[in-house]
Write a structure and sequence with these properties.
This protein is 3% helix and 57% strand. By secondary structure, the chain is mainly beta.
Length: 316
């Protein structure tokens, strides 16, 4: 299993765009319209993340030497404040503090202001997992007082987004058959790229799963096995995996956050090297999850190993 990219966790629930009381550092250049402020006005566009795209609206109003702003949230009436906003030339940066049930999250924004377009990226670290999303906005008017409802252009050009469900931390989520494709580098722990089917079946005790991976690489077919035991009260599980090269890895996984599972994997010796992997599983939906893996050899810093997306092909 792998890297997560894609709860975002995750992300579409956390972050629309922003509403803010902001201050500028420096504004240079000609306004997009004669006599108009470069940033003030109504902006409409989209947020794009792993879970899909959704329309958003932001309104900025000039207030002395700075701006005030507001935006359309995922749920009506929800706004996110920007702080430490800096507009230097065409570069706009800011951050936001978002209170989640699990923890406080800091979102960092970077934008480029190009005439009537404002394009940028938001990034955050959620439970040790790096997540990001793209934002594209266009100024549609100088109106700063109208209600924050998505404009017709935004509604027509974007796919509707369904809020990400919160999966119960239970072995029930995994039981069944999943197809996967892993993209990454080869390592002492396995070949890449690879793809195949993993099947999870429940033991009579109700809390232990047996996993069997039947995969393919350019070198041929391979088989791996897993044993996962859930610790209901701890929102965690232990795991042991026997890889195709007969290496056995084991450890514990933390599932206190419904959309993200953090694996603590014990180091193993493979040949002359001490190897350790770091893994984050992100739950995208009831039928899909992703995994991100990093690797460290002989105490060196962790580097990206690979990532995979798993899709359910058969239920329990």
């Amino acid at each position: 299993m792998r890297r997560l990219r894609t709860v975002l966790l995750s992300l579409m629930i956390l972050v629309p765009f922003v509403s803010a009381q902001v201050a500028t550092d420096q504004v240079v250049g000609s306004p997009a319209r004669a006599g108009a402020d470069r940033l003030a006005g109504r902006w409409e566009g989209r947020i794009a993340a792993l879970q899909g795209e959704r329309p958003t609206v932001a309104v900025f109003k000039k207030a002395g030497d700075g701006y005030t702003g507001r935006t359309l949230g995922l749920r009506p009436g929800v706004e996110i404040d920007l702080i430490d906003l800096q507009l230097v030339g065409d570069q706009l940066t800011a951050r936001a503090e978002v209170e989640m049930p699990q923890a406080a999250v800091t979102i960092n924004y970077t934008f480029k202001l190009e005439g009537e377009a404002l394009r940028g990226r938001g990034s955050l670290d959620f439970a040790g997992q790096a997540l990001s999303f793209n934002i594209e906005l266009k100024r549609v008017s100088g109106d700063t007082e109208a209600p924050l409802t998505a404009g017709a252009a935004g509604r027509a050009s974007l796919r509707p987004v369904v809020a990400q469900p919160q999966q119960k931390q239970s072995p029930d989520y995994f039981v069944g058959r999943w197809s996967f494709r892993y993209v990454g580098r080869e390592s002492p722990l396995g070949l890449a790229p690879r793809e195949g089917i993993v099947t999870y079946t429940r033991r009579p005790d109700g809390r232990t799963l047996d996993g069997r991976i039947e995969g393919r690489t350019d070198a041929g077919a391979y088989t791996e096995t897993q044993v996962i035991t859930f610790l209901e009260g701890d929102k965690a599980f232990t795991f042991t995996e026997r890889l195709a090269n007969r290496t056995v890895i084991s450890g514990r996984a933390d599932w206190r956050i419904p959309i993200s599972i953090q694996y603590a994997v014990e180091p193993v010796r493979v040949g002359r090297h001490q190897v350790q992997i770091r893994r984050t599983l992100s739950i995208i939906a009831a039928h899909s999850f992703s995994v991100v893996e990093e690797i460290s050899a002989d105490g060196e810093p962790f580097v990206r190993l690979g990532d995979a997306v798993y899709t359910r092909v058969e239920s329990k």
